[in-house]
Structure formats: C-alpha cells, structure tokens
C-alpha cells in the first residue's frame, strides 16, 4: 500500500500489479489533493472569479453603452476573456508546488500520473470558470448563440485544450527562474492554433449553421495530441 501525505492529508492508494489501474488510482488521488488544496486556499479561486466578473463588467461599460455588439466581436471577445482566465488559472499548477513537495511526489508516484492529474484538474477548473464566464457574459452582453448545446461542447473542448497545453508550459516554466514571465511568453504561441479552431467552431454554433464538424474534430485531435505529447515528454522534464 502506497501512502500520500500532501498538505496534512493522508491518501491510501492500494497497490495493484496492473499498471493502467495503478496509474488511474494515482491520478484520482492527486486530483483529490488538488481539489482539497483549492478549497482550503479559496482566495485564489475567488480571485479568478473576480477577474472574470470585472472583465465582463468592463466589456459591458465599453460596448453595450455604445450600441449593440456584433456577433463576431461578441465571439472573439468572449474567447479572449477565457484565454486570459485560463492563463491566470493554470499558471499556478506547478508554481505553487514547493520543491520539497515535488521531491516527495517523485518518491511516490510516476511522472505520467502527475501531469495527467494536473491536466484533468485544470480542465475541470477551466470548464467551471468558462461556464461562469459564459453565463455572466450572456447576461450583460446578450446571448446571440443559436445552438447552445454545440456552443457548450466547444467551451468544454476549449477548457481541455487550454488545460492540456498550458499545464505542460507551467511545468516547463516552473523549472526556470523567471517562471512568472516565461509562462505567458511560451503559452500564447502554443494556444494560438487551438484558439483559432475554437473561434471558428464557436462561430458556427453562434450562427446556427449546420456546417461541417471539422473544427470540432480538429479541436479534439489537437487536444489528444497535446495530452499525448505531455504524457511522453513530462518524465524527462520531471528528472531535471
């Protein structure tokens, strides 16, 4: 039996001879640890919610009073808000982990479990923040979306895409000295292809067009590619 003791909590991970099952167990308990830490340090979560609310309010003051916001501008502005929210939320993934805690994880779990747990946790976090931002944004700036279900699917794929790409960038930046500066510098070029596909897929849902689902397939393919690259490359980063 393997025991975790991160941040005063004890997690018992039953050992199994099946590597895939053991990997899933490690991911699950690491995600539990991250959720408990987030709940204990609610100031960071409240800060992200405040950032979303203040950004939406500034957009309301800037655009609504000047007239109706066109649908393309509405779409682009929403994804800019979600992008900067994702950067602020994911940046702390590895930056908040002390060197001693990472060394402790090094002795207990595999690096693949650490990176996949971080990606899964950040995807859930960004999905929640994205839905909150979409709701607040629609409330004050109107909701021109013709296909809400498809648009919600695009938001979910965007949360996974931002989480998978920015989490690996956060792990790389945590190894450098100027990590706070390095995170946005390395992150924005990586998320640009994902952002372009998100805007295209969201525009189809916004207009209510029965267009080709190719942007959704591209988003899913990019997300799986980034997750696979993170799974393969993070063990080398872990040993540095």
UniProtKB/TrEMBL annotation:
It comes from the Bacteria. Keywords: Membrane, Transmembrane, Transmembrane helix. The chain crosses the membrane at residues 43-64, 76-95, 115-139, 151-174, 181-199, 219-238. It is found in: Membrane. It is a multi-pass membrane protein. InterPro entries: Cyt_c_biogenesis_CcmB. The keyword Membrane applies. Its main location: membrane. Belongs to the CcmB/CycW/HelB family. This is Heme exporter protein CcmB.
